[in-house]
């Protein structure tokens, strides 16, 4: 039989879930609407050639983010969660991930410069 405490706890969890889902949905919709409004404005202000340069730069940065993150968001979160009571270990994990990401970013920048320079 369900007691009042468990029922209240369950309703509270569902209330938080619905609230979080609502906020995330509003965020997604607002990001889409902002994109629909800003892109035509940028094309009008910058012109098609300059906007093309901006779009190309964003694509290159998107690839940079892909290479730099390389799954560290998932593995880092998992390792931090496993060692949440050991502050020293958490600090080492965070520092290691940050250093490796910096090294990968520098390598990506060097490759990009090598590609762009004649």
Automatic annotation (TrEMBL):
<feature type="transmembrane region" description="Helical">
    <location>
        <begin position="55"/>
        <end position="72"/>
    </location>
</feature>
<feature type="transmembrane region" description="Helical">
    <location>
        <begin position="21"/>
        <end position="43"/>
    </location>
</feature>
<feature type="transmembrane region" description="Helical">
    <location>
        <begin position="93"/>
        <end position="117"/>
    </location>
</feature>
<keyword id="KW-0472">Membrane</keyword>
<dbReference type="Pfam" id="PF01943">
    <property type="entry name" value="Polysacc_synt"/>
</dbReference>
<protein>
    <recommendedName>
        <fullName>Polysaccharide biosynthesis protein</fullName>
    </recommendedName>
</protein>
<keyword id="KW-1133">Transmembrane helix</keyword>
<dbReference type="GO" id="GO:0016020">
    <property type="term" value="C:membrane"/>
</dbReference>
<dbReference type="InterPro" id="IPR052556">
    <property type="entry name" value="PolySynth_Transporter"/>
</dbReference>
<keyword id="KW-0812">Transmembrane</keyword>
<dbReference type="InterPro" id="IPR002797">
    <property type="entry name" value="Polysacc_synth"/>
</dbReference>
């Amino acid at each position: 039989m369900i007691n009042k405490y468990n029922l209240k706890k369950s309703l509270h969890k569902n209330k938080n879930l619905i609230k979080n889902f609502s906020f995330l949905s509003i965020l997604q919709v607002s990001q889409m609407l902002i994109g629909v409004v800003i892109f035509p404005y940028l094309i009008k202000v910058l012109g098609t050639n300059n906007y093309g340069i901006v779009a190309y730069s964003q694509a290159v940065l998107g690839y940079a983010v892909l290479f730099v993150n390389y799954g560290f968001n998932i593995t880092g979160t998992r390792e931090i969660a496993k060692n949440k009571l050991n502050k020293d270990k958490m600090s080492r994990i965070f520092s290691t991930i940050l250093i490796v990401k910096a090294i990968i970013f520098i390598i990506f920048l060097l490759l990009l410069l090598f590609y762009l320079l004649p």
